[in-house]
Write a structure and sequence with these properties.
- The protein is mainly alpha-helical.
Length: 82
Amino acid sequence: MAASDPRTRAISETSASRGPNRPLFTRGGPPNYVQNSLAAAGQPFKGITADGSIVPSLYPVQKTGVSTRRGEIIEPWRQLYV
């Protein structure tokens, strides 16, 4: 892909090129699309659901033994790819 391809640019770059006063996309969606989107954005995030209901303990938080420390993740990556 070329450097000017919008898929390779950061969101801030593409937003800046469109201008700060660009209105929200309001055409082509279902009725009340923008209002429903803004209302949903104000709600606490509960994850992706099939019907809006949370399935308890679907992916419980538990220790796996896999480190999440930065140095312990990056060093093996460097050994493989650098």
